[in-house]
Amino acid sequence: MPSCSILVVDDEPGIRELLCLMLETSGYTVMAAADGLQAPKVLAANPIDVVITDLLMPERDGLEFITEVRKKFPQVKIIAMSGGGHIARDSYLRIAKNFGAHVLLEKPFSQAGVLDAIETVLKTP
After folding, report:
1. Cα angle: 22, vertex 16, 23; to 5 degrees
2. Which of 45, 63, 85, 105 is the most exposed place for a label (fewest CB within 10 A)?
């Protein structure tokens, strides 16, 4: 497993904590942010290789955040995740791909699914 740092962005504390625990026990350096407003501050202050972001969040959604990451931190790889909302989750994920997400992850996810997504995104040029 390559050494890398990951930023987890999700407004649901349980999901955020679960992802952080999963990734830390797999040997990754992990940081967390509660939303799309806090996340850019973490990115600006720390070397981050991969962002895993929820799409549906209050204040500032994942699509706006992905757009900012693509502009300000083009080297950062992005995994977008969604459990859906008012429209089907695969629709949100397709939109996220158009906004610049490299890999898509559906909620609910498994640890193997998350680790596969990270492995895939790290191989993305």
Report:
1. 20
2. 45
Q: Which domains does the chain have, with CATH numbers?
A: 5-123 (3.40.50.2300)
Reply yes or no: is the peptide bond before residue 13 cis, omega within 30 of 0: no
Which residues of the chain fall short of a pLDDT of 50?
1, 89
Phi, psi of 52 (to 5 degrees): -110, 115
- Tell the burial category of 125 from Cβ atoms under 10 Å away from its Cβ (0-12, 13-18, 19+): exposed
Q: Output the six-digit token pair for 122.
A: 């790290």
- 79 neighbors 54 (Cβ within 8 angstroms): no
Question: Across the chain, where does the E strand assignment appear?
Answer: 5-9, 29-33, 50-54, 77-82, 103-106
User: Residue for token digits 């070397």?
Assistant: 47
Are 39 and 54 in contact by the 8 Å Cβ rule? The answer is no
Task: Output the six-digit token pair for 113.
Answer: 């699914």
Predicted local distance difference test score (pLDDT) of residue 12: 94
